[in-house]
Amino acid sequence: MELLDKLTILADAAKYDVACTSCGVSRKEVKGQLGNTMNAGICHSFSADGRCVTLLKVLYTNVCSYDCSYCINRRSNDVPRTTFSPRELAELVIGFYRRNYIEGLFLSSAVLKNPDYTTERMCEALRLLREEYGFRGYIHAKGVPGTSDELLVRLGVLADRVSLNIELPSEESLRLLAPEKSKASTLGPMAFVRDGIKANYQDKQLSTVRRTRFVPAGQSTQMIVGATPESDYQILRLSASLYRTMELRRVFFSAYIPVNSDPLLPTGTEAPLLREHRLYQADWLMRFYEFDVGEIIDEDEPFLDPLIDPKCNWALRHIDQFPVEINRVPYEMLLRVPGIGVKGAKRIVMARRHHSLRFEDLKRLNITLKRAQYFITCNGAYPEGVVFDPLSIYTLLAGETKKRRAKGVLDGQLQLLA
Questions:
Q1: What are residue 88's phi and psi, to 5 degrees?
Q2: Pairing of strands 45-46, 52-53
Q3: 257-287 tens-digit pLDDT
Q4: How many Cβ atoms are within 10 Å of 392's Cβ, its own excluded?
Q5: Residue 211, helix vs strand vs coil
Q6: Which end of the chain is less crowded, N or C, counting CB atoms within 10 A of the terminal residue's CB?
Q7: Distance from first CA to last CA of the chain, Å, rounded?
Q8: β-pairing, 161-164 with 52-53?
Q9: Under a CB-based contact definition with an 8 Å cutoff, are residues 160 and 215 in contact?
């Protein structure tokens, strides 16, 4: 098979892996070698200087020994199969880089023979890139659950970020839809990578000699949402546990896309993109806004409200804490006001040191008053025409979501997240 045909098949098969994240690592260019890595974004994101930075997103192979019900590459599917050689993949990446098509690589793979064999071939491709071609660009590699510690070390030294996908939120769902996988086969390597990152960091702190980098951009994971009956509460509790115990950089949520016919899978034809979107919003609250899972969602109402975002939902359920006076409320409470983000809260704290803020000032600080206006006062006054009534506020905010969906605006944004 021609190399271009292989690329067509394996790039298309990689579209179900989520990779839209900032790289989280910096590496300067070196004379005689290729590329560098900046902390700002990758994969259809934008760097600090305004450049759109992209990755080649591809599988090493789509020949799989597993038969996961939800996966297009399951061994029982009749699809075109192919595999790169390590040299082919390395030359492809370098060729694309020299043409200025890409600035990095996102490499995943089906399970060829077994996890160790697959990881060994991926490591060889990355070794060629790093050592023979001198490639210093960003590499995000998907680890295969069940891989030996020795190979994980090799992969972690060659890549900037490593992902080990947990796939489904519970052991029961894995047994049902992915019988060759288990939570233990993912959590064991995940813990090994976590400990390796810690040890590597401590070595660098203690030694004046710069040691080998091991997964410098940290690790992440991915969960499929909607293929199994777990609630948002269960998914977010698992995410919070992974952040706490495995020290992950990101948990990605991937709306289930029906690509196979199987009696074990949901019969719907559309991916639950709005649910995925709400989970990302809740995840953001946990990571940047100091929310606990129990504040966002609980067992009594185990699914996020599709009509309003989780932060607005929390505010309406704790309406006794609102409205807050924008000129006096502490920073921690500012973070909990819908429409005010981390940057916005910091701008407000700095600006109000110099003068009392009005609603016109908040607009200049880029605060989203469309939501914030219902929960704040400026110098004791509400915006003109705003009524502080929880039911009216919910109706108005939910109506905004319905309008955006009717116009197709929100659906377009969700497709970009998928």
A1: -60, -45
A2: antiparallel
A3: 888 888 999 877 666 889 999 999 999 999 9
A4: 12
A5: coil
A6: N
A7: 30
A8: unpaired
A9: yes
Q: Return the residue matching tokens 């998907």.
A: 142
Query: To the nearest whole number, what is the mean pLDDT of the chain?
Result: 88
- Reading the block at residue 263, the tokens are 């009696």
SS3 83: strand
Divide the 418 residues of the chain into consecutive groups of 10 and give the mean pLDDT of each group: 89 76 56 57 45 77 96 94 97 90 90 97 98 92 95 96 94 95 95 94 64 86 94 97 95 91 81 90 95 95 95 96 96 96 96 95 93 94 89 91 69 45
Query: In sequence order, what DSSP letters do the residues of 123-179 get, joined into one string?
Result: HHHHHIIIIIS-B-SEEEEEEPTT--HHHHHHHHHH-SEEEE--BSSSHHHHHHH-T
Among the residues of 247-368, which ranges form H helices? 273-288, 293-296, 310-317, 331-334, 342-351, 359-364
CA–CA dist 48, 71 (Å, integer): 36
**Among the four given CATH numbers 3.30.70.940, 3.40.50.150, 3.40.50.10750, 3.20.20.70, the one describing domain 3-269:** 3.20.20.70
Please give the C-alpha separations between residue 38 and each of 22, 129, 147, in angstroms, as whole numbers. Answer: 9, 18, 29
Would you say 410 and 401 are in contact if contact means Cβ atoms under 8 Å apart?
A: yes
Q: Which two tokens stand for residue 300?
A: 């009594």
- Closest residue by Cα to residue 5 from 96, 75, 82: 82
**In which residue ranges of the chain is CATH 3.20.20.70 found?**
3-269
